[in-house]
Amino acid sequence: MPVERLLPTPEAYDLIELTRDVADKVLAPRVVEHERNETFPEGVFPALGAAGLLSLPYPEEFGGGNQPYEVYLQVLEELGARWAAVAVAVSVHGLSCFALATHGTEEQKARWLPDMLGGETIGAYSLSEPQAGSDAAALACRATAVDGGYRISGSKAWITNGGKADFYTLFARTSDAGSKGISCFLVPAGTEGLSFGKPEEKMGLHAVPTTTAHYDDAFVPEERRIGAEGQGLPIAFSALDSGRLGIAAVAVGLAQAALDEATAYAKERKAFGKKIIDHQGLGFVLADMAAAVDSARATYIDAARRKDAGLPYSRQASVAKLVATDAAMKVTTDAVQVLGGYGYTRDFPVERFMRDAKITQIFEGTNQIQRLVIARHLAG
């Protein structure tokens, strides 16, 4: 059964119905093939873009959908319930547009944002490096000022959509001033000197590549620097607050899909003369799964409403990411248990859900980092 949602406007209900229709027709029929073969789903992102689902939280004047985050995240959840890899890529695209949309000049936004939000392009976020994941201040990729712009040299890691994206929101070091020496750049795909490594062989999210990127004296014009020199980390961290909510929503979608599969199976499978859902031991497992999904959804919606109201929401974003992704890991693992031996095979999707759920506890800041953020807020 579809999730019963409380949405702020009639338009939002229509948007959720549109999302379900597109997801059922465009995503659901292709997910098994591409995840199993580890092939990129050509045509999927243009279809989502044509439906207006790639730019929902951004202003209409630049081609966005002008939707509140409360609604956008529930769209992501619906996509995540059908195909987590694609939903993650959509979330990363939104994250990649954030720097320009919030810190770009009016001229920069007018020049580049319509193409980024128009549905024909998809973005990637380049913050982490092989030696600098959680410790973003340790970035070593360097942007050296030259006449008319910057020469960039170094490597970036763990890039979702790497090699497939049309633009990269890059964070590189412009001085040796530690965390204050990092700047933000908008790098177009095809930039001379930019190349990509072999896609990582991952546990899950097989259909969307994750790669390293190598900058070999790549020239980026000064006009493509977003914000002031040294402003990069504040931009990156503010973007990650919203990005963590995207991952929380995708994780809830995964957990909801796992709950639905497990419940449907438990209503059909019989043991000892009755449906297994009617055995109290298993019924309680399903009840705990449902409670975890509902609780996780509530955390990201609360954070989103705070963001929409212009209130501080960094702590709530970390809570949502922590609670939702831990819930997704637990619920998908329990779904495999409910299906028993069948759950451990690729004939049923809960095996894929469990593999996909694990990464949600790691990217956009590990859940240990989320606990650190929450603790620091508590300490004042």
Automatic annotation (TrEMBL):
Q: Which UniProt keywords apply?
A: FAD, Flavoprotein, Oxidoreductase
Q: Which residue numbers delimit the Acyl-CoA oxidase/dehydrogenase middle domain?
A: 124-217
Q: Which GO terms describe its molecular function?
A: acyl-CoA dehydrogenase activity; flavin adenine dinucleotide binding
Q: Does the keyword Iron apply?
A: no
Question: Record's superkingdom?
Answer: Bacteria
Q: Does the keyword Lipid metabolism apply?
A: no
* The reaction(s) this protein catalyses: a 2,3-saturated acyl-CoA + A = a 2,3-dehydroacyl-CoA + AH2
List each copy of the Acyl-CoA dehydrogenase/oxidase N-terminal domain by range. 9-120
- List the Pfam families hit by this protein, alphabetically: Acyl-CoA_dh_1 (PF00441), Acyl-CoA_dh_M (PF02770), Acyl-CoA_dh_N (PF02771)
List the cofactors. Answer: FAD
Q: Which residue numbers delimit the Acyl-CoA dehydrogenase/oxidase C-terminal domain?
A: 230-378
What does the similarity note say?
Answer: Belongs to the acyl-CoA dehydrogenase family.
- What protein name applies here? Acyl-CoA dehydrogenase
> Can you name the source organism?
Rhodococcus rhodochrous KG-21
